[in-house]
Amino acid sequence: MNKVKCECGHVNPHGTVLCEACGNILDEKARQGKLLDMRYEGSARRSQTYNKTIIDRIWNFFSSVKVGVILIVITLIATAIGSILPQVSTLGQLPVPAHQYYEENYGWFGKLYYFFGFHDTYGSWWYLLLIASIGVSLVICSLDRAIPLYKALKNQRVKRNTNFLNRQRLYNKAENVEIDFTTLKEKLKKKHYNVHIDNGNLLAEKGRFSRWGPYVNHIGLIIFLIGCMLRFVPGFYINEFLWIKEGETLAIPGTDKQYYLTNHEFIFEVYDESDGEVFRNAIEEKGMIAKNFQTNVTLYSAEQSLPGEEPELEKIKDYEIQVNKPLKIDGYALYQSSYRLNEIASMTFALTNKETGESYGNITIDLNNPQKKYDLGNGYGVELLDYFPNFQMKDGVPSTASQDPLNPAFAFKMVTPDRPEGERSFAAIQQTIEVTENKYKMEFQTAEMVNYSGLTVRLDNTLPVIAIGGVIFLIGLAQGSFWQHRRIWIKTEKGGCHIAGHTNKNWYGFHKEIEKILSDTNIPIPIDQKTEKNQEKE
Amino acid sequence: MAELSSNLLLIAFVIYLIATLFFGGAIRQKKGMDESHYKNKVTLSAKIGITLTIIGFIVHIGYFITRWIAAGHAPVSNMFEFITFFSLMVVGAFILIYFLYHTPVLGVFALPIVLILIGYASMFSRDITPLIPPLRSIWLPLHVMTTAAGQAILAISFIAGLIYLIKTVNQAEATRKRFSLELIMYFITVVIGFIVITSTFSFMNYEAQFEWVNKEGELSTIDYALPALVGPNEGTLLTASKMEPLVELPANFNTSRVNTVIWSFIAGTIIYILVRLITRKRISQMVQPLVSKINGNLLDEISYRSVLIGFPIFTLGGLVFAMIWAQIAWTRFWAWDPKEVWALITWFFYAAFLHLRLSRGWHGEKSAWLAVIGFGIIMFNLIFVNLVIAGLHSYV
C-alpha cells in the first residue's frame, strides 16, 4: 500500500490523517476544520483504511466503538430484563415444570418471559454470545487503536507544523518575542514535564502513560473473561454439597475420598440481652436475629484405600467453620451454607402385648439406615416392611412426600412365638393403623434428635486468573482516569512564536497550569478556542 | 452514645440547610460569575457557605463515629445507615470538587439533594440492628463504604449534569427535552412528598394492621404506617377505626410498600401543583435564572471528571470488593442477585458513557443527559431493587 510522505520528510503509513512526526494535516477534510480531531493522534487505523476482504469487514465491524457501545447497551438491557422475575436457577426444586411455574405465578407475563428464555437469561447461549462479542470487540478495538497511537506518539517530533498548532484547542501566537528557553525549561520541569528543545522549538510532555490506560484495562477484562470461561474446563471447578449430621464422619465429596470430615457439633446462636442494650429495639421488632452459624469439625486426610476397605484417617486439623470463615484445604473450601435443626435421627419402639402391657424388648431404627429385621431373641422379632420418611396418604395409599424424615411412618411385621406368621401394624407419629385386630403393638418410646450442617464444597482454580484480570483492569482504569496526557508546543518562527497545548482531558486544570507556568514570561497565554467558538454561537 | 449520634445528625442537617442559603446568596451576586472561569473570584457568601459545609461534614462524621462506637460495627448495615453514609460521601465529594473548581452553584444543588437524602433515610427504621452472620466481616465496611464513595462522586456528576441541563434546555419551546427535565424535577418532588407524608403520619402515630393470605396461601399480618389505599390479598383490618382499603392487590405484592409509593406520588403531585400554581412557572424554569451565568464547559468538565473519579472507585467497591466478599460469604463471587445485577448494569452504563464520550464525541448536553440517567440507575438500585425485588441484599 502507498506510504504517504509528508513535506517534513517523514514517511507515514497509508491512511494517516496527521503526520506522525510534525502533525501536518494530510487529509483534505481535516484541513477544513477550525479545530483538529486529536483522537488517536490522527494515526492510520487499519479499520479506517482497508475494506476489501471478509476479514477486513469483520475487523471493521468489531473495531467500531459504536458497535462496542451498542453491544454494551444490548447486554445492559438483557441483564435488566433478567432481573425482573426470579431466574429459574435461584428457585431451587420446583414442584411443577418451570414453564408452568412462571405461568401460574406471573400470568401472561410469566408465560412470555419463559417463552423468550429470560427465565435463564444469564446462562443462555445468546447472553454468552453477547459477552463473547464484547470480548472480541475489546480485543479488536484495542489493537486497531493502540498500535498506531503508539507509533504516532513515538514518532512525534519537537518541531510541529503550524497548521497543526493553530488548530489546537489551546492556542495563541505573538510577533517579536524573545523566549528564554532555559528558564522556561526549569519552570516546566518543576511541573514534572519532560522537556525537549530543538532549534527554537519546544515540546513539553507529561503523563503519556495515561494514554495506555484504556488498553491496559481492556487486557485485564480479557483475562477476566478468559478466567470465567476456564470454569468449563474439567478439573478447574468443583461444586458439591455435603449434608453432615453431628457425630458423623464422611468423605468430602469432590475430593476423590482424599479428605474426610467429622462434624462434632453444629451451633446456632441468636442475639439476646447479653449482646447489649443498643440492640434491644431491633430484636423486639424483628423477633429473632441470627448471630452465628457454626460447625465444629475435624479434617482428616485418607490414605488411598481399596474399595470396600475402611480408609485410614490422619487428622489434619480442628476447625470452626462459620459464615465468612470457610475451611480451606489444598484449593478446596468448605462453606457454612445451610443447616437443619432437631431432625429425628432414630426412633425407638417397644414390642408390647396390648392387653398385659408386657414388653419384649426395644428396637431402635436409625432413620438413615433402617434395617430389614430386628431380632429380639426368644423367638420375638420385628420386620420392617416399609418406611415412609415424610408420610402422607395420597388417594388412600400411604406414600412419602419427600426423603426428609419430617413425619416418619413404618409398616411393621411383628413376629412372636405364638404368632409365627406375624401381625402387621402401621405406625406413624401419634397414630397406629391395623388391618386386622392385633394382639401386639409397636409402642413408641423415644426419638433421638440431631442437627445437620449443610456445607458447600468448592474448588475454583479459575480464581487466580480472574484475580489477575481484575487487578490489571483496576490498574488500567486508574491509569487512564486519574492521570492525563498533557503536551505544550512552542514554535518560534520569523521572530514570533506559536504556542499550543493539548490534553486528553481536564482542560480547565491544564489551562490553569499553563497560565501559572507562563506568568512572568513574555510568551502569550493560549486561548481556549472552544469556548470562544461557543461564544460566537451564542 | 446512640442518642448523641442522632443529635449530631440533626445538627449536621441544620448546618447544611444554612450553608445552602449562603451558596444561594453567593450565586446571586454578579461578581465572579463571568465567562472567564479560569479566574473565578470567590465571594464572601461562598466562603461562609463552604466553611459551614465543612463544619456540617465534620459533625456528620461525628454522627458516623459515635454510631459506630455504639453499635460496635460499622454503621452501614441497613437502609438508614447506608443512605446517611451515602449523603456524607456526597458532601465529601462536593467539598473535593468545590476546591478543584470553586463553583458555589454546585452547592446550591448538592446540599438540597443531601438534605433530601437524609430526610429519606430517616423514614426507615433508625434502630441499631445487630449483624446477621453473613454481614459479620471486615468486608462489610470495605465493600459498602467504597461503593458509597464511588456512587457519591457519580452523584456530583449528576448534579453538574442537571445544572447544565437547567441552563441549556430551552424553556420557551415545548420540547421533549424540556418535558424530560421537568420530569426529573417532578420525581425529586415526589421524594419530598414521600418524606412529608411519611413524617406526618408517623408524627400522628398512625398504625394499621391487616391479616392477609400470602403467596403460599398462609395467613400472615402486615403493618401499614399510612392509611391503606390498596389492601393486601384477602385482607381484613385488625386495628379498630382505621381506613379500609379502596382496592385489593394480588398476593405477589408487598402492599404496604405499594401503598407508600402511591401516597408519595399523591403528596408529591400536590406539592408540585401548588408550586406551579404559586410561581406560575415550571420548576426548571424557576431555577434557570440561578444558573444562567455559569460556564457550560466548566459544568461539562466537572460532570465528566466526577465520572472519571467515581467510576473506578465504584468498580472497586461495587464489583471487585463485592466479588471478593461474595466468594467468602456466599461461596461464589457472582450469584446474579438482583442488587449485583443492577450494580453490573450501572457499570455497563457508565462504561458506555465513557466510550460515547471518548470515541463518539458526546460532550455537553448529551453527556449531561447520560450523567443524569446514570444516577437514575443508581437510585433505582438503591430504592426499587432493595424494596421491591428482594434478594440476598434485602437488609432493610
Automatic annotation (TrEMBL), chain A:
InterPro entries: Cyt_c_bgen_Ccs1/CcsB/ResB, ResB-like_domain
Entry annotated with the keyword NADP: no
Annotated ranges, domain ResB-like: 65-419, 436-515
One Pfam family cited in the UniProt record for this chain: ResB
Membrane topology, as annotated: Multi-pass membrane protein
Compartments, as annotated in UniProt: Membrane
Primary residence: membrane
Annotated keywords: Cytochrome c-type biogenesis, Membrane, Transmembrane, Transmembrane helix
Methyltransferase in keyword set: no
Domain of life (superkingdom): Bacteria
Bilayer-spanning residue ranges: 67-85, 125-147, 215-237, 463-483
Protein known as: Cytochrome C biogenesis protein
Protein species of origin: Pallidibacillus pasinlerensis
Phylogenetic lineage: Bacteria, Bacillati, Bacillota, Bacilli, Bacillales
TrEMBL record, chain B:
Topology of this chain in the membrane: Multi-pass membrane protein
InterPro entries: Cyt_c_assembly, Cyt_c_biogenesis_CcsA, Cyt_c_biogenesis_CcsA/CcmC
Keyword Membrane among record annotations: yes
Main location: membrane
Ranges for domain Cytochrome c assembly protein: 268-393
Protein name as annotated: C-type cytochrome biogenesis protein CcsB
Classification via Pfam families: Cytochrom_C_asm
Location(s), subcellular: Membrane
Record field: transmembrane: 6-27, 48-70, 82-101, 108-126, 138-163, 183-204, 261-279, 307-329, 341-358, 370-392
Keywords: Cytochrome c-type biogenesis, Membrane, Transmembrane, Transmembrane helix
